[in-house]
Amino acid sequence: MKKRIGILLSGRGSNFEAIARNVASGVIDAEIAVVISNRPEARGLETARKLGLTAVSLPSKGLDREVYDRMVVAELKKHQVDLVCLAGYMRLLSAYFVREYHMRILNIHPALLPSFPGLDAQHQAIEHGVKLSGCTVHFVDENLDAGPILVQTTVPVLNDDNADTLSARILEQEHRIYTEAINIVLSGKYHIDGRRVVLD
Fold first, then answer.
1. 128 is catalytic
2. What is the rounded CA–CA span in Å between residue 175 and residue 166?
3. pLDDT digit string (tens) for 4-25?
4. Are 97 and 169 in the same domain?
């Protein structure tokens, strides 16, 4: 039986689209069980519906973090989700959520963690004057962009780059390495040694 992926997003969901393409083509041997957004207007929900996927709007405005996360977890469990993938999901997860899906939540971040966590990572990289940036797929824990790292790749920062041009080049790599990371997790051929993810 195929593993079931749950996608959480807050916006257009370009990483979700890349995952969906790779699921449809068989590059990822799994199925997308549900797409959930905390923002009813998120473009990713519309995309999911067009692809014939189950798309659920669960507005988060005004709700306590754990109260909201209990709603999301209940929805994920209803759809028997094995692996949760955050795709531009603009909320920190509660300890409850992380416990319920321990080491089964992935996130992608547009920087080489632990450098430049949080928002506007590409802008932070430009401001800092780094020569290399990139992206990171990591397991999610209770801290911001801090869980064990699965896959990283570098993207050079060009002299005439701004946050937008750098973001566009990083995004191309995000689409590639998120699929790579999902396939590693689905294969089960890894173990976690402290903070290190070791491929078996």
1. no
2. 15
3. 999 999 999 999 999 999 999 9
4. no
